[in-house]
Amino acid sequence: MGRHAGITGWGMYVPQRVVTNQELEALVHTTDAWILARTGIRERHIAADHETASSMAIAASREALERASLAPEALDLVIAATVTPERLFPATASVVQHALGANRAAAFDLNAACSGFVYALATAWQFIASGAYQNVLVVGSEVYSRILDWEDRATCVLFGDGAGAVLLQAQERPGLLSFVLGSDGGGADLLYVPGLGASPVERARQDGRYHLQMNGREVFRFAVSIMADVSRQAVAEAGLEMEHVELLIPHQANRRIILAAAKALGLAPERVLINVDRYGNTSAASIPIALCEAVQSGCLKRGDHAVLVGFGGGLSWGALALEWS
Ligand code: ACO
Prior knowledge:
Elements: E1 4-13, E2 18-20, H1 21-25, H2 32-39, E3 43-45, H3 53-68, E4 77-81, H4 92-100, E5 106-110, H5 116-129, E6 135-143, H6 153-156, E7 161-171, E8 176-183, E9 191-192, H7 200-206, E10 213-214, H8 216-237, E11 247-250, H9 255-265, H10 276-279, H11 286-296, E12 305-312, E13 316-323
Parallel strand pairs: 4-5, 4-6, 11-12
Antiparallel strand pairs: 1-7, 2-3, 6-7, 8-13, 9-10, 12-13
Residues 30, 34-35, 38-39, 113-114, 153-154, 157, 191, 214, 216-217, 219-220, 223, 253-254, 281, 283, 312-313 line the site of acetyl coenzyme *A (ACO).
């Protein structure tokens, strides 16, 4: 078995309940027109009471394994990227590992907010490149609906719930080609959710609640420039030119951010996958959900080069270039 790695299975899950912008008009002082114009979002899926990051991750992961016809016992490792776990521990990945019957697999969670899936995929790749493992499941799953302040119109309209998973397997020829990851903790206050270990001062400031806090304007500025920069770096490290990239699969936070980054990269809109209109921002799940839709719709074909690029809380960012095989 080779030490290259390629994606051989993919799956996604979104809750059945769809919440439209019009429904949000009844909740906060906003309009469908504002949300659509400023973000490109029309609707998002919201988890039912019984659904969690692990339940959605399990559904997406089962689909990925089935698509690759891999028995769960063959998995060596499960990595779950999530910042909305049902329990802080055990890891969501452990819950997924058990539910799948992946009884040989190690499991851990990875927190890099909306960059989590790219970080997790790059991490999974290293286990394969080292020769340690052959079959690694990477899943991004989020229920932001549970950490949003549903009275804050500046944040509650932006996010949705869902999960996406891929199976990464050792193979003879290159599939994943390069990755670039980065972090700037200096931007920690621009986008965060207080933790269970928050200081009494922080708890008082949050009034005992654990809601997502965001400086939208600053995050917007950061996102546009970092997505273009890091995509360029990943393409160069793969020994490619941007013109060789058939498809950019960006983190789905805001249509305006995606289009501005695409323009900076000289990519026509038809070479960029956008599905934020139907899902909103599903954080670590957004890139694997977009990847699934790209493959299923035929946008991503054998031999195509693609760049996955994410950004988010941390601040954090990551891009990964691949050849679809
Ligand atoms: N409906 C109506 N008006 C609104 C709403 C709303 N839902 N939300 C904000 N507004 C108002 C604001 O109050 C503001 O009013 P004011 O001028 O009277 O103060 C006005 O709209 C404009 O606000 P801006 O913040 O300037 O609007 P902007 O064009 O920047 O769009 C947005 C806001 C959509 C949040 C944008 O800044 C954005 O997308 N930022 C990036 C967010 C992001 O990507 N976050 C996720 C990162 S990934 C992760 O790790 C979670």
